[in-house]
User: Fold this.
Amino acid sequence: MSITEKIQAKAKELLDSGTVNYIIGWEKGTFWHQSTPVFVKKAADADKLIWDEFCINSLSTYLIRLDDELKVGLFVKGCDSKGIVRLIQDKQLKREQVVLIGIPCNGMRNAKGAVEKTEPANLPLEQKCIECVHPNPVIYDELIGEPVVIADKSDRFNDVLELEKLSPNEKYQYWAAQFEKCIRCYACRNTCPACNCKECYVDQYRVGWQNKAVDLAENQMFHVTRAMHVAGRCVECGECQRQCPMDIPIMQMNRKLIMEINELFGEYAAGVDLEAKPPLGQFKTDDPEEFM
Amino acid sequence: MKAINKSQIEELIQALAAEGQVFVPQELNGNTKYAPWQKGVQVILDKNVLLSPKDILFPQTEAMYSYVADNLNTAITEVAVAAEKQVIFGIKPCDVKSVRLMDLVFLTKGFEDTFYKTKKDNTLLVSVGCAKAEPTCFCTSMDVNPQVEEGADLALIDMGEEYGVEAKTEAGSQLLAKINSLLKDSTGQLIETTGFQIVFDGIEGVPEKLKGMFEHPIWDEICLKCISCGACTYLCPTCHCFDIQTKKIGKEGYSYRCWDSCMFSDYALMAGGHDVRPSKKERVRQRFMHKLRYFPERYNELMCVGCGRCLAKCPVNVDITRIIGQIKEAEVNGG
Assistant:
């Protein structure tokens, strides 16, 4: 059986038995190089579900603010599964609310610029997949497919190392040019499994933390606040950057913070181990405190 | 017909620069958008750019007045709207139509928006037709002519090696006379725009049908995968909702208007805390109802020009063309 067939069979089984209220997976999108999230509520609709080289969307975002009464079946790649761990650790989701079908992932393909239909293998990998550290699901109830060999991805920090060579002024210029582009659509925040606040500070319009004007100062305020807020919790799914319509290299900020945290508190991979507490979410007596 | 060789576009823009600042579609800082022309800029004319020229006439953030509020001493100063002549060159027919739609919103029905009007009155639109559609283009299905749309002052029509040049307004005729030395007489033929991957049978009956679909279960399904970001509304050349906000530092501040998105949680939140569109379903429904029903009811025009920007950039492939299909197929009780 192909993975698509296994997915469909599993979805039918979960829906028929009444184990879950609905299933979240992927279906074919508008174009051949597009697969898109789909919610399946009836076993008869399970045939929509597919698995191919374009199932790039991370599905964990759909579990943010999930109704306590609901139970959902979800297909998870490595990145999706880390989002689930994020939500459970942040007490935004109960483990028993989800049935997780893990799918090891060989990376998704990017068809940007390809007009003619071609074999997916001829297309380049998506950037977030090139940089992916955990292609295998880190949490699941059942695994479909064979685990993928994990490659060393320490070079994903190279961008940050390059940026660090710049002078403070040059760094400012670089980031100012990036933030100038932001249209504040909040796709980065809305897709992020670490952005799971019940009410985002941005939306606390009466308090006025974040002014609605779209200018450099306000854009910087938003991006720096968000980066600091997901520090130590970013699971490196890369969805913020991939979904940004303005191509702002958001992951460079997140990775800079990951590097800082690793250096200060020891190596830590967020969203991998349910039991491992986030470094910024705990206190140890031997924590570095040179700022005191 | 008058025509100009494609190799002479730079000279043409140079000539237009005598009229005022010329905005041209170009790559800037990694994005494609309309920005002031300078000599040597690579002008993008073979496809549409990511950001529509909406921002030139209706800026994302626009100061309206500034104020001082120091106990009983208050003063309000209006912000002068720049009334400088400008030209938008290279605007595609879909975006020309979207400007026409913005005109309806900001200039008709007994209300004139000074901020918009001042800029629009000082703007010349020089459109450039499309020979080839992008995969996400569907303008022809939305009743837009990919070569030339009403609303441009001067229309350049793709004829292969050259552009046919037609004046469409009085201002356009004056402009045509000024650039006459660059033009030649041509018997060339307009090229049929090719490459459309999305073609459907218009939206006849859809605005009417939607009148009976406010409570239809279709919205429960359509909204599910939307992540409630504002990418579609902010990239859309026809979305024109705005909010008025202030920024105050100490005793001084200013009020401005800025784009707003019906996808956002505070959009329909009222004073007192009641939200008339409390969830994603109502917000997504509003977006499509506005485009396909309310706007046609008010202005007799669809509020979608088929530019395909939302389709290209929606993170989760919420596809207005498919939704139109779903609406057509939907069963409605009682007709």
In short: Residues 280-299 of chain B form the longest helix (20 residues). Chain B touches chain A at residues 29-31, 50, 60-61, 135, 197-198, 221, 224-225, 227-231, 233-235, 243, 245, 247, 256, 258-261, 264-266, 311, 313, 315-317, 319, 321-322 (CB under 8 Å). DSSP finds eleven helices and twelve strands in chain B. The mean pLDDT of chain B is 95.
